[in-house]
Amino acid sequence: MISTKMQEQIKNSSVIRAMFEEGRRLSEIYGAENVFDFSLGNPSVEPPIEVNNAILEILQTEKLMSVHGYMNNSGYEEVRAVIAKSINDKFGTAFTFNNILMTVGAAGGLNVIFKTLLNPQDEVITFAPFFGEYRGYVKNHEGELVIVAPNTLDFQPNLEDFKQKITSKTKAVIINSPNNPTGVIYSEENIIKLSDILREKQKEFGTDIYLISDEPYRELAYDNNEVPYLSKYYANTIVGYSFSKSLSLPGERIGYLVIPDQAADYENIVAAANMANRILGFVNAPSLFQRVVAKCLNAKVDIDSYNKNRELIYKSLSSYGYQCIKPQGAFYLFVKTPIENDAEFCALAKQKNILIVPGTAFGCPGYVRIAYCVAYKTIEKALPGFKALIDEVK
Ligand code: PLP
Prior knowledge:
This protein is an alpha/beta fold. It is built from 14 helices and 13 strands.
């Protein structure tokens, strides 16, 4: 018999994954071209050519044992050094390889940092709407996820409610910008205010509160929007980065954590995170892809493609009467449902072979998430269904 903890986890398992499976089932019945699957954040653009070139070059020029062997649990030092330099060049920071720990994607990195920081019942605050998997990641390490109410005006962080939610048990705050599911980039002004609040509360409670910046969408920012680099605003910052979306490599499971020297208890965190990578069963991030990403730090996916999708879906849905904010980054549109019940609205959409995810999965009922990382044609073909949907329910 499986553990009671896992029984509960399975019962509440990801709506997004369930939708993805539903999409495959419907495709078999109606043909893939007649199913409009906006459920999963799986990149729709190819990895840049530099990725293929790097794989070939590494395999052709290096000794295979040096490519495929074990290494330090934190990753190859030369890879971490190149990544540190690249961050320093972009953001004026002063990291070295000691500040970088290679991870199995963002998901691996977040589990490593929660394992490193959390005692049972420690609280981790996040802002709704948020990536639903945080629930599982925090629970894995016996923490409690505390959710700040959404600010549905513009989906910037609700700092008033945030202040109320910080207690002596708050160990960490996790934010995600550009945001999944809203596409909103948290403004510099709000990052400064959020950092001020954290410093105040640290003083009030005599604790260290870590700010975890979950950044898989950092490179997907439109209209030259800036995404503030958080370690410049708040010393106890830990950055979780991923190449899943920035290089379209979600299946390769590669990312890194940045642990700045200024973070409280820095040396112990670095040692514990190295140990966590090992004992969580990752042992280390994939060896070949550590080397590949080190050669592709300036490579870019075709963000114009996502931008074209963004313009089409945002303009069209707005013109049909849907209420939504124009995303500034990532590849999601978060739309207010024209009926109150978001799950019911998703069920109605499914009758038109449109698969979207209820906002409840992101802690924000009354909305749906549309992942527009699909072919442009898919959006074009789905638009009449979206129009019919709102016309029918109004
Ligand atoms: N965090 C957010 C906000 C995400 O949207 C995702 C994936 O969609 C992840 C983390 C996990 O990313 P990875 O594939 O790098 O584990």
